[in-house]
Amino acid sequence: MRDPAERAAIARIEREEWEHRAIVLSCSSVWMLSRSAYATLDAHRRVAVAGACFVIGRFLAMYFAGRLESSNIGEYVDGAMSAQRLERFADERTFERLARVEAEHERFFRNAVRGTRRCR
Ligand SMILES: [Fe+2]
Predict the structure, then answer these.
(1) Using an 8 Å Cβ cutoff, are 11 and 46 in contact?
(2) What is the pLDDT of residues 49-98, one digit of tens each?
(3) Counting Cβ atoms within 10 Å, is residue 53 exposed (0-12), middle (13-18) or buried (19+)?
(4) How far is the CA of 89 from the centre of ligand 1 (A)?
């Protein structure tokens, strides 16, 4: 990835993902177990997509990263709804905030895909 601004943006997104993982894992209640399992899975998927860059090329790597971000949004929205049902309103607000950040990540990768020529 030659563009320094793009590299910096992806480094920021990766930092935010690890922060999200720590936030999800810090919620130490039973109902969060599914979330923590997800957080661990997600972290591994990211490493896999990052590594695939060198194999599948920039377009597909950005495309799959964008798809991952879409699934993150859904996970955090589910988490917020679960927290609301359990009247865990602080957790609800936390998940809503994480979902908004994931939407920014998705927008970044969607724009990166739009700007990419398919054939390399
Ligand atoms: Fe993300």
Answers:
(1) no
(2) 556 666 678 888 888 899 999 999 999 999 999 889 989 899 999 999 99
(3) middle
(4) 22
Task: Tell me, in angstroms, the distance from the centre of ligand 1 to residue 87's CA.
Answer: 26
Three-state secondary structure readout of the chain: CCCHHHHHHHHHHHHHHHHHHHHHHHCCCHHHHHHHHHHHHHHHHHHHHHHHHHHHHHHHHHHHHHHHHHHHHHHHHHHHHHHHHCCCHHHHHHHHHHHHHHHHHHHHHHHHHHCCCCCC
Measured over the CA atoms of residue 103, residue 55, residue 8 and residue 27, the dihedral's sign is: positive
Residues surrounding ion ligand 1 at CB below 5 Å: 69, 102, 105
The domain segmentation of the chain, as residue ranges, is 4-115
